């Protein structure tokens, strides 16, 4: 008996029109749709007349439900994994199901589409050439502050998910620990009450404090620490070339990611030194 396929299906963040034709087809053809909350997923299914049965899979039942899904996949059924919104397996238990499916020799395919992470960073106006996704920081204040302190020197743009109940505390602590750097708060993306607030951490903290509460899903994009380079490009490249055996392009990419220097500038210097 041939095994089934696990499809990782991205679904709309809010606007139900933001779904691909392939996603609709896969959801219709799958044996079952694994979802976090049937009440939310059914709205999408009704909109596109999808009659596939649903199976609840979330953080609280992932062990039992995951075992059932892997068994069904092993028996030849196909499973479409969706989250409440956006791309599954990012800051949710979906990645564990994917891992188990791979371990069991089951084919895993992605049906790409909406992602709160990517949508927030491209609309933020902050640098996108290098960024890091930090997901949800710890809910407890002490652990959250330690996590922010560990990120104080991060030069890449940072993207966080946060609860609307904790976003005010997060912004205030981030402004204190990271400094008053540029930031963007994205709330309820693609929905009726979509809101994009750009400014500084301190400014956003003050705005949220003034409001008292915010509603809906929140994604925060925070600018990285100012980059400082004590060595010249020539010196950095010379030191790196001594132990490098890869291509000039790969080396330029590595040095640029590590130092924040222009990849083009580094690549030109690598070619100059290797030619000499």
Provide the descriptors you would attach to this structure in a database record.
11 helices; Cobalt-precorrin-4 Transmethylase, domain 1; single chain; globular; 276 residues; 3 domains
What would you say this structure looks like, in words?
The chain starts with a strand and ends with a helix. It folds into three domains: 5-114, 3-Layer(aba) Sandwich (Cobalt-precorrin-4 Transmethylase, domain 1); 117-222, Tetrapyrrole methylase, C-terminal domain (Methyltransferase, Cobalt-precorrin-4 Transmethylase, Domain 2), CATH 3.30.950.10; 233-275. It contains eleven helices and ten strands. Helix 6 links the parallel strand 6 (131-136) and strand 7. The model has no long low-confidence stretch (mean pLDDT 92). Helix 6 packs across helix 7 (167-178) and helix 10 (248-259) packs across helix 11 (263-275). The chain has 276 residues and is an alpha/beta fold.
Strand-helix topology:
Blueprint: E1 5-9, H1 21-29, E2 32-35, H2 38-47, E3 54-56, H3 62-74, E4 79-81, H4 94-103, E5 107-111, H5 116-124, E6 131-136, H6 141-150, E7 157-162, H7 167-178, E8 182-187, E9 195-200, H8 201-211, E10 218-222, H9 233-241, H10 248-259, H11 263-275
Parallel strand pairs: 1-4, 1-5, 2-3, 2-4, 6-7
Antiparallel strand pairs: 7-10, 8-9, 8-10
Helix pairs in contact: 3-4, 6-7, 7-8, 9-11, 10-11
